[in-house]
Design a protein that fits this description.
There is one protein chain. The radius of gyration is 17 Å and the shape is elongated. It has a two-stranded antiparallel ribbon with strand order 1-2. Helices cover 36% and strands 12% of the residues. It is built from two helices and two strands, in the order H-E-E-H. The chain has helices spanning 16-29, 64-82; strands at residues 47-51, 58-63. It starts with 15 loop residues before the first helix and ends in a 9-residue tail after the last helix. It is of the alpha+beta class. It has a domain at 23-79.
Length: 91
């Protein structure tokens, strides 16, 4: 069962424009190195259309696992930077 916060691609910000661009550019990604791991991207592998951190432009394709790992790493770093530490003692 899907979690209550799961979104379809359009709700997640990957609507018609993103999906059309992905379909058009996907064949040109095959054989090129992934920008994250430098291994070739091959037909049949799950690939993501990678975007910049601010999501204003696209950087090309990357392996789905590499792209999502990088996004998680950036997100975790941002959350850690915002975290405030609480102590049990009032200073």
């Amino acid at each position: 069962m899907a979690s209550s916060n799961s979104k379809n691609t359009t709700q997640a910000g990957y609507g018609y424009t993103h999906q059309s661009l992905r379909r058009a550019l996907l064949p040109s990604a095959y054989g090129k190195p992934c920008p994250h791991c430098q291994q070739p991207m091959l037909p049949g592998q799950p690939l993501d259309l990678d975007h910049t951190a601010d999501r204003t432009s696209y950087r090309g394709f990357a392996h789905a696992s590499c792209n999502r790992s990088e996004g998680a790493r950036r997100g975790n770093a941002q959350r850690s930077a915002r975290r405030t530490w609480r102590t049990s003692r009032q200073w």
